[in-house]
Amino acid sequence: MKVSDYIVKFLVEYKIDQVFSYIGKNAHICDSIDKDKAIQNIFTIHEQGAGFAADAYARVTSKTGVATVTSGPGGTNLVTAIADCYFDAIPTMFIVGDLPPDECRGDKCIRQFGFQETDMVSIVKPITKYAVAINDLKDLRYELEKAYFLSQEGRKGPVLISLPENLQFIQTYEPNQEKSFYDSDEYKKMIQNTHNHIDNEDIKTTVELIKKAERPVVLIGGGVRQSLGAGLELKQFLDKTNIPIVYSLMGKDVIRDDYKYNLGFIGNFGNRYSNLTVANADLLIVLGSRLDYLQTGRNIDTFAREAKIIQVDIDQFELGLRLHIDLPVLFDVKSFLQKLNKNNFTLNIDAWQNKVLQYKEKYPSEYGIDKKERIGNKIISKISEYLRDDDIICVDVGEHQMLVAQSLVTKGSQRILFSGGFGTMGFSLPAAIGATLGTGRRVIVISGDGGFQMNIQELEVLHRRNLPIKMFIINNASLHMVKLRQDTYLNGNRVGSQKDYSVPSLKKVGEAYRIKSHEVSNLNLNEVNEVIEKSLQNNEPELVDIKLEGPMTTVEPRLDFNRAFEDMRPYLKREELEDLMYIKSWNK
Q1: What pLDDT, on a 0 to 100 scale, did the predictor assign at position 107?
Q2: Each residue of 68-79: pLDDT tens digit?
Q3: Domains of the chain and CATH, by start
Q4: How far apart are CA 139 and CA 264, in angstroms?
């Protein structure tokens, strides 16, 4: 068997039907994909585009996403996408077609020996679960199986394989004669170390804490989405208990917004009613969340400060890392919820439920405390209104990302894909390609002008393949989130975020790529609404540039560096805030 044919056969056995590619020294692998009817190449315009497409493919299918590129700059152009997968725990495999070993520097004290020679394994080791260079075909089957297993095992993540070009075209490879990773002691040891046992005392303690709680809250993190089936178990638990929930950015699409006690997005740019809910809780059940500073705020002493905190996570190093945890539980979220659901709950939390609903009614995300409309939030709400129940929404990084987290209403089987831990501008457009090809569903891109320009070249793929992708660009002609920090800490010197920064006509750019395109302005919201509604009535690729003009728009509310978790800008009057609290106000 030809080596490249074996690699493709291996991927097909794991039901991987798309590989995102940029051709070079991986040409034999791409050729083998092209000849196999069960799998196809998707050629992007930039290697980073291939990486993000594989990332999103993995998110929506739960399979391992695969991208293949050439050596040198081909590999280094993947690094940002690899890091994104690592920090968001996305199972992916990156295959780099590399130079033959005799063209590499080895132990020579020189920078480079062969053309485009780069040691990708050393570069990506800190941002992969496993990275290996295969220079002997005796290792190929073992290393391929090991890399795939590690991408899906435990806390999932990316792996990288470097395979020299001269090995790819060898015709006499016999994989059945080579050692399998799954027969090895290494594999058996990994299986033994998997966290698949839970102390029943942890479940018993959790049940007791829930039954005693007067103000319980569940915090949903990305780990719930990563644990297959955990969302259904969580819904069953909520049907039993009606406990209010909040979510991190990565947990937004786990529970629909029609759940009565869905209290929304928490953190530095969270909904005001969400932060109030967490601040006043007496029990916080954290499911698959790292509790990073974007969630807790920098003044962590004020976060859920009178609550008992239970944290459930599959990664032992995340438990109790940033703040005190009363009950750390090292276990898979789905399995934890399955055991929890075997118990009966009779809770007396009516007063608490009514209170959090009052928070939500009093401080809706589309209006400020001055009762004026927030234009950005209103635009996101309008997009949300016309979405189909099975749409996938790919969101870039910036102001619009926080607006989506605050105001997009989830329904049906919708998915929302964010670049979370790494916060990568340029994520949304190539991610949309992977998401639609992985599912056949329509994808909505919501991006800012800055992020959209970073991978704008992938518009060519949308036209070439006539992909059902709608793009809404929230265009404030600036890098707004940076601008906020400059206004706060640098006396409003907006260098790089507005000074020496510009945006071309995105409508003309879209048309240059032969994509139907529009330009509208928030100064005529009726036109904005009409264009949004009309564009979402079909599946053709389409771009809508929504210019935010006139008075400054901004993301509110937001949590300043030293403020209490519930005390968000624009600030409530002290008397009003104290009236909302079950617990004492933070006066330090």
Answers
A1: 81
A2: 999 999 999 999
A3: 3-192 (3.40.50.970), 200-362 (3.40.50.1220), 375-547 (3.40.50.970)
A4: 49
Q: If we measure between CA atoms, which residue out of 386, 502, 514, 380 comes closest to residue 447?
A: 380
Lookup: tokens for 229: 């089936």
C-alpha span between 517 and 509 (Å, rounded)? 9
Q: How far apart are CA 9 and CA 33, in angstroms?
A: 9
Backbone phi, psi, residue 113, to 5°: -115, -50
Whether the per-residue pLDDT at 195 is higher than 70: the answer is no
Residue with tokens 């068997």: 1
Burial of 303 (0-12, 13-18, 19+ CB in 10 A): buried
CB 68 within 8 A of CB 19: yes
Contact 308, 326 (CB under 8 A): yes
**Crossing angle between the packed helical segments 375-386 and 399-407, to the nearest 10 degrees:** 60
385/532 Cα distance (integer angstroms)? 10
Model confidence band, residue 338 (pLDDT cutoffs 50, 70, 90): very high
Say how far apart CA 64 and CA 54 lie, in whole Å.
8
Residue found under tokens 């391992």: 64
Distance in angstroms (rounded) separating the CA atoms of residues 397 and 474: 11
DSSP SS3 for 168: helix
- The residues that bridge with 418 in the sheet, in sequence order, are 395
pTM over 0.85: yes
Residue 303 clears pLDDT 90, i.e. is over it? yes
Is residue 228 within 8 A of residue 89, CB to CB? The reply is no
**Nearest Cα to Cα of residue 482 among 470, 472, 490, 474:** 490
